Amino acid sequence: MIANDSQLAELIPQLERYDRIAVDTEADSLHCYFEKLCLVQISIPGHDYLVDPLARFDLKPLAAALAQKEIVLQGADFDLRLLRRALDFTASRIFDTVIAARLLGIRAFSLAALVERYFGVALTKGSQKANWAQRPLPRHMADYAINDTRYLLPLAEKLETELRERGRLEWFQQSCQRGLEQTSVQRVRDEEEVWRITGAGKLSPRASAVLRELWQWREKEAQATDRPAFHILQNHFLLRAAEAFVAGEVPDHRHFSARRRQAFRAAGERGMALPESEWPVRLRRKGVRPTPAMERAAEALRRRRDAVADEHGLEPSFIAPRGALDAVAADESRSATLLAPWQRSLLQL
Prior knowledge:
This protein is of the alpha/beta class. The protein has helices at about 5-15, 60-65, 75-85, 95-105, 110-120, 140-150, 150-165, 170-185, 205-225, 230, 235-245, 260-275, 290-310, 315-320, 320-330, 335-340, 340-345, and strands spanning about 20-25, 35-45, 45-50, 70-75, 95.
């Protein structure tokens, strides 16, 4: 475990010898409200390392050492966003094994499935939901973490060879570049709409007002205790509580402390006291209602996509998801921002 400056100083020269480095991360989002980077796994030929960000030492040298490397990841989006937030790290080149596998028409593209397919090794599962912030890190969790990068470099080599043989390496490079660009765009949640959890659309306007207050109460509780919101109260209980308040009932949960129970009831009462003018307005579908011409264009694109997908042995949605096709049917100029060049070429856009 790399857990101090001197150990990191010994690692950096090892990383500098290679252009391609495998990286993975572990976080504690299932156990804390404020997600933390808890572990960085790194593999180079013949060596695997675990870096401990929780040891509170300077990781800027690591970020700098990785910045100009080709980073091999299994599903890059989450890891790159986490590394950007935690280390201010931005990759310049990536090799996403999920993209590679899907471009080869492989439908089972989890790391475990790919490792078994190419190496005949069955990876041990069981630590995916573990608390990665615990220290010392148990041996079985360390082994699990190391396996997340141990096979990525040889896997990337095999996938790259197949992509080249099938003439899809350029497609892959375009998709990785597009994925890299997408991770640089910060996701900002809409505070006016984020409380609309699954099932909220079925509530009455007044129950929606109560739900919004309960959701905001839960957020404050989760932040104050640094626990995930679902640890405070799960979504389906929030929905039931909103309906119960409107029905004149006072919902209760036995695991609440006296203080939390009081704050929960106060939130429900605030929602009930809101005048109708302050109740949430039902969401309307955004965008332009498709015209018959747009619908015909979208259907033609779907038929073309499905035929091309069948011809190349690819998942239709990987060539272009339905939402992208509908958007392009409404405005073909959007294809440049929604699709990679190889996707546009296959669709003749």
